[in-house]
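ingest -> validate -> predict -> emit
validate: passed (alphabet ok, no gaps, 98 aa)
predict: started
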Amino acid sequence: MPLPMRAASGLSVDDHHHPSHDSPTGRAIQAAARQAQRARRAETVRLRQRAALLELLVQTMAELHISMAELNAARKALAPAWRQVGDGGTSLDHDLER
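emit:
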């Protein structure tokens, strides 16, 4: 079995880092890149959860014969409660104004 390039070259993983990563600027750049990656992953998870919730809502509404009129009436009735909890500019605010 052939050796991976690092093993074949005799270089360790530590030999492959770039010298600029040792500087405060290099470390800050790497930290920012890691944070951006975490943010992208979190957004992907949030979008998947949102899609799953919407699917569940559609299924539940169909099973319980909940109409859009009933859903909108419930949203309007609950609007004062979630407006106080949220940031005041949720997408539901916009939807209720339609």
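The chain has a mean pLDDT of 79.
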